[in-house]
Design goal:
mainly beta, 128 residues
């Protein structure tokens, strides 16, 4: 059973898969992904802005990005456990029920035919 949340949470100990919809400029409609489009996701530490891992359309030990549903503007970002297991989980105090604190941020750098070059940012990434 899944839990609905507005937080972007990476889970340790498994391959994490996220489907992300790319929208058209100034629209709520999805952008059609062209075969020539390029996507790269970069994970950064919030504390010092250092790069932790990078995934692209070319598979590496950290993961891979795949075109999931091109007509509906969806990409699939896979983060392998080799990357996820090295991430640090930050939590609040016992009095506050050990709530998760964001420790990372994620940038998705894109070069697309329909939207040009842009960066989509997830400013708070949690690790559990």
């Amino acid at each position: 059973m899944g839990v609905l949340s507005n937080k972007f949470v990476i889970n340790k100990g498994l391959v994490n898969e996220f489907i992300i919809t790319i929208k058209q400029n100034n629209e709520t409609l999805p952008m059609v992904i062209d075969p020539s489009d390029v996507f790269e996701a970069v994970l950064y530490k919030l504390s010092d802005e250092s790069e932790v891992g990078r995934v692209s359309l070319v598979e590496n030990t950290n993961g891979v990005i795949e075109i999931y549903d091109a007509p509906n503007g969806q990409i699939l970002v896979k983060l392998y456990d080799a990357l996820c297991n090295n991430l640090v989980s930050e939590k609040g105090t016992k009095a506050d029920r050990y709530y998760l604190k964001p420790a990372y941020r994620l940038s998705i750098e894109a070069s697309t035919l329909n939207n040009g070059n842009f960066v989509a940012k997830l400013r708070e990434v949690y690790v559990e």
